[in-house]
Amino acid sequence: MKLASREQDGVIVLAPKGKIMGGPDATAMHEMLHDLVAHDKKMVVIDLAGVDWMNSTGLGILISGLTTMKNCDGDLKLANVTDKIKSLLTITKLVTVFESHDSVDSAVEAFTKG
Amino acid sequence: MAQNSEDTVTKLKKELIIPNSQTHLPEADEFIESNLESLGIDQSTVADIAISATELINNAILHGNSGDTTKKVKIGLYVEDSKVEVSISDQGAGFDPKVVPDPLAEENLLKEVGRGIFIARSLVDGLVFDTEPGWGTRAIITKHLD
Q1: Could you give the C-alpha distances from A74 to A22, A37, A112, B9, B109, in angstroms and in order?
Q2: Count of domains in chain A?
Q3: Cα(A76)–Cα(A67) distance, rounded to whole angstroms?
Q4: Would you call B119 and A60 a contact, using CB atoms and an 8 Å cutoff?
Q5: Do residues B20 and A23 lie in contact, with contact meaning Cβ atoms separated by under 8 Å?
Q6: I need a labelling partner for B82 at 20 to 30 A (CA). Which of A30, A66, A82, A101 fits?
Q7: Looking at the complex, does the CB of residue A31 fall below 8 Å from at least one CB of chain B?
Q8: What is the nearest CA distance from A10 to chain B, expressed in angstroms?
Q9: pTM score, two decimals?
């Protein structure tokens, strides 16, 4: 899994690419999310367009990221959630926990609109 | 292709043994997905099986084998006309799937772990656990093919 990172209007956009199934790549994404807070970056969008699928490890990383951001008065939003991932979020009831947007621009705008 | 006693045709029967480390997850996933795709099984079904299987492989590595890198995980793949079966065997002491906490319970919703078996079961038509002689816990997932 590759993980691209950029900043857009003060919001960090992380774009994992591939499958999030566990192991060192997943750990790296988990650590990156926690490092962001250490650098006072608390507004994050995860662009899921490039994720083929994820299992519960991926969901755990998203939850960890969300909890970390919220504990620092920040937030984590999802963008471009594929049907496969939406299905997982639904069956695990996490669809009620995460704010999802159809595009990165929409998710970033949601931060600036407050 | 082999003909079994129920007049169904075995399309594929393969096995992969990996060292007990999550660094071998991509290898296990590739083994499952490439073999299923070569049989013309649709991508969505392949993904469901792969997600379910990797949940159980992670459990085997981390819990069944307790992260012991000297142990192994065996993945069996069996396909006939009407179904796919994937078995995942560890070398651990066994566990009771009934004692796994409910991930949908309010108090568990924001936990980072504990959803693996639930997700694995939700994406396939059957998930059973038994003990494989010479190994430990064996999880067998079944997905019917349309």
Answers
A1: 26, 9, 12, 56, 20
A2: 1
A3: 9
A4: no
A5: no
A6: A82
A7: no
A8: 27
A9: 0.93
Spatial distance between the Cα atoms of A57 and B56, rounded to a whole number of angstroms = 12
Put simply, whether A90 touches B (Cβ < 8 Å) is: no
CATH assignment of the domain containing A43: 3.30.750.24
Structure tokens given for B94: 């066994």
Amino acid at A111: F
Provide the token pair at B73.
């995980």
Reported as a single tens digit per residue, the pLDDT across B126-141 is 999 998 888 999 999 9
In a domain, A61, yes or no: yes
Within a domain: A43 = yes
- In order, the DSSP letters of B53-96 are HHHHHHHIIIIISTT-TTSEEEEEEEEETTEEEEEEE-SS----
Report residue B8 CA to chain centroid gap: 22
pLDDT digits (tens, 9 = 90+) for A67-111: 999 999 999 999 999 999 999 999 999 999 999 999 999 999 999
Asked if the Cβ–Cβ distance from A91 to B47 is below 8 Å, we say no
Residue A113 lies in a domain: no
Run of H or E residues at A79? strand A75-79
State residue A80 phi and psi, 5-degree precision: 55, 50
